[in-house]
């Protein structure tokens, strides 16, 4: 099985066929959109502002207050931090072939007994606890902290979604992901990728008719 991330696992649960075409057969190329280009620009601007003190473009200035708050915390800040774990949940290099799961945390801070992990969100407010759970799991496997506060920062809407996890919850966190990835492993073992039709089939998936019988062109309003 390929190394998984929050986004790849999410793709699998949205549609196993799409996952296979995108990550295994690679017939669905990654395509930049106006939204993803904007998100990448904001992420880079806030990273360089927090790490290097580089000025940000005017449209990003309202977001720097979140970076400033994190920099004031009693801990060591980090930016675009790469995390990776083996199947035994041992920390490893991000590009290590033994990596079972990987993830990148946009910004955070690590203290003596607690940590913060936050993710910049430049789109609509769509909280998902799985990504926050994964952040907490990464932090507690890599650092000797007992508590991790995790947050989505909804930059366009000026709000946050925050969840806090403690070390005694760590077994449940990984039990959750072992259960979810077991379904993915079964698809690999059987080489069976059953499509899951949804509204995304209407032109929002890059599979095309030649790869999926449920694909159809996007409707023009």
Topology (elements, then pairings):
Blueprint: H1 6-14, H2 16-24, H3 34-52, H4 64-71, E1 76-85, E2 101-110, E3 114-121, H5 129-142, E4 147-154, E5 159-166, H6 170-190
Parallel strand pairs: 3-4
Antiparallel strand pairs: 1-2, 2-3, 4-5
Helix pairs in contact: 1-2, 5-6
Write structural notes for this entry.
The chain has 221 residues and is an alpha+beta fold. It has 2 domains: 62 residues, no CATH class; 139 residues, no CATH class. It is 36% helix and 20% strand. The model has no long low-confidence stretch (mean pLDDT 95).
In short:
The protein has helices at 6-14, 16-24, 34-52, 64-71, 129-142, 170-190, and strands at 76-85, 101-110, 114-121, 147-154, 159-166.
Task: Return the structural class.
Answer: alpha+beta
Number of helices: 6
Q: What's the end-to-end separation, in Å?
A: 40 Å
Instruction: Kindly give the count of domains.
Output: 2
User: How much of the sequence is in beta strands?
Assistant: 15-25%
Shape: globular
Determine the mean pLDDT. 95
Residue share in helices?
25-40%
Strand order in space, largest sheet: 1-2-3-4-5
Q: Low-confidence spans: pLDDT under 50, at least 5 residues?
A: none
Properties at a glance:
221 residues, alpha+beta, 2 domains, 6 helices, globular
